[in-house]
Design goal:
The protein is mainly alpha-helical. Helix content is about 80%, strand content about 0%. The chain contains 18 helices and no strands. Helix 4 crosses helix 6, helix 10 crosses helix 11 and helix 11 crosses helix 14. It is globular, with a radius of gyration of 20 Å. The two termini are about 35 Å apart. About 0% of the residues have low confidence.
């Protein structure tokens, strides 16, 4: 036993944050190379957006993964999945057909779904009574990944061409090996759920109003978020920016998003989750509208502000979910992840279809207007009690 369990647990939080970083770096490879893939395969914007949906489709199995994770040691999932995701995403450049692209993205999506269902549960356990801070560190890893990912993949394309990105595969495998040595002895795991614990169906029924509110927030933010992330390089290149400038802009957005992610969860520990969400959802549409109407050197600082608020809701919502007291946390987390991935995927398709029909410029404006709807759901959001007790366990 360590003499300083808090220091030990912070070490685990940092290691898990690193695991999020190395897992999500390859996940950020798709958006920067979309213009190249569009040219290679002659895709429409809708077909390009569909690629991101293929990556998210496995999230439909999240509830089943959550039920499984509640009965298993989850550290091995966290160790293996970064390597699997890295292999699939690094091979996108050599895909011979659109079908192969879809298959690799689906496999990557399965790996990603497993990781994101299990990692936040372990973060909650090692964070003890500072869940907001723990989720901030965890989400910081993911947002830094989306900052570094575009630079890494564009650097690889510059060095080796689109079909040479397979050379990044060993880095992902090395990351999984490192995580094995760091996490192999971690004592936190989700042991078997004891007989008599709350039934998953009754837990879900008790939490349905809560998840409806979260779903509304995610849905109305989804168009804005997909427009400013997956379609940002395409939007900027259509407006005349170079591929490098578009990639750098995405990295600027993601880097400031990392700062917003880190700060938001910590601040929500102090001022409350709902107050933090009210500030974020009220500010987001204003900043996106500002981005669309500013040119020149002011674009970068506006993108920085967009990133700070755009990604700030992530750790707050995740902390809100993990404020729930239940022995079914993997399952509850999986429901939230399913909502997140499914609704964001839907909005990726909606934005892509709208862009093909009315153009990206008008689609961006409509996305900013739609984001106002998330504020309504935040206002009526109520924190549920323990679903285990409500279900009669």
């Amino acid at each position: 036993m360590t003499k300083n369990p808090k220091k030990k647990n912070l070490g685990y939080v940092l290691t898990l944050s690193f695991s999020h970083l190395v897992h999500d770096i390859p996940g950020a490879f798709l958006a920067p190379i979309l213009p190249l893939l569009i040219d290679k395969f002659g895709m429409t914007v809708f077909m390009a957006g569909l690629l991101d949906v293929f990556r998210r489709v496995p999230s439909l199995a999240n509830p089943f993964l959550g039920l499984l994770a509640d009965r298993m040691r989850i550290r091995y999932f966290i160790i293996i999945t970064p390597g699997v995701t890295a292999v699939m995403m690094s091979l996108l450049g050599i895909a011979p057909t659109y079908t192969f692209l879809a298959i690799m993205l689906i496999i990557s999506g399965i790996s990603s779904a497993i990781y994101h269902v299990t990692a936040p549960v372990m973060i909650k356990e090692v964070s003890i009574d500072r869940i907001g801070r723990g989720m901030s560190f965890y989400m910081l890893g993911g947002e830094l990944a989306r900052t570094l990912g575009p630079m890494i993949i564009l650097g690889a394309v510059s060095l080796w061409g689109l079909e040479g990105t397979w050379r990044l595969v060993p880095f992902g495998i090395a990351a999984s090996a490192f995580l094995y040595f760091q996490l192999r002895n971690i004592t936190v795991d989700r042991s078997q759920v004891e007989k008599g614990d709350a039934h998953a169906g009754r837990v879900l029924a008790a939490l349905t109003p809560f998840f409806i509110s979260l779903g509304g927030i995610l849905l109305f933010q989804g168009a804005m978020k997909s427009a400013l992330t997956i379609y940002l390089p395409t939007y900027l290149t259509v407006k005349g920016a170079s591929l490098w400038m578009a990639g750098i802009s995405l990295s600027v957005l993601q880097f400031s998003g990392a700062a917003g992610t880190f700060l938001a969860g910590i601040i929500s520990d102090r001022i409350g989750r709902k107050n933090a969400l009210l500030i974020i959802t009220a500010t987001n549409p204003v900043l996106m509208w500002l981005f669309m109407n500013i040119d020149g050197i002011f674009v970068i600082p506006v993108l920085v502000l967009n990133g700070l608020f755009l990604f700030g809701s992530g750790p707050v919502l995740l902390a809100l979910v993990h404020d729930i007291k239940s022995k079914r946390m993997s399952f509850i987390n999986s429901i939230f992840m399913t909502l997140n991935f499914v609704l964001s995927s839907l909005m990726v398709l909606v934005v892509g279809a709208a862009a093909d029909r009315i153009g990206l410029d008008l689609t961006y404006k409509l996305s900013a207007i739609a984001a106002v709807g998330s504020l309504v759901f935040v206002i009526f959001l109520k924190m549920p009690g323990s679903p285990d007790k409500q279900s009669g366990a």
